[in-house]
Specification:
By secondary structure, the chain is mainly alpha-helical. The chain is about 80% helix and about 0% strand.
Amino acid sequence: MNVPPAAPVCTTNLPNLDMIQQGLAAANSHMESIANYQVMSAAPSPIKNQYIQDVFATIQMQASNKQQKAKLEKQQLQIAQEKAALELLQLEKKKLSTASFP
């Protein structure tokens, strides 16, 4: 009895678990967006207006938080630079005070 050889299995085109999870997450997010749109399209105007105001307020707060964070990081960097410069001056002062002159 002649049995044909098994076909080679190609594993390069098989999706991995991460790809499947990412696809499911993207589909879930898309479906959630559609559901939210449908709910908001049926909502009364005062609710829609309040929602839009809340969204814009949230965006403004996030932008303000980013600006404050950047400002704080800049101040921290300046403090670190000043501290390093002070330490360098102290080392030079110590070096001069311990140096012996002929």
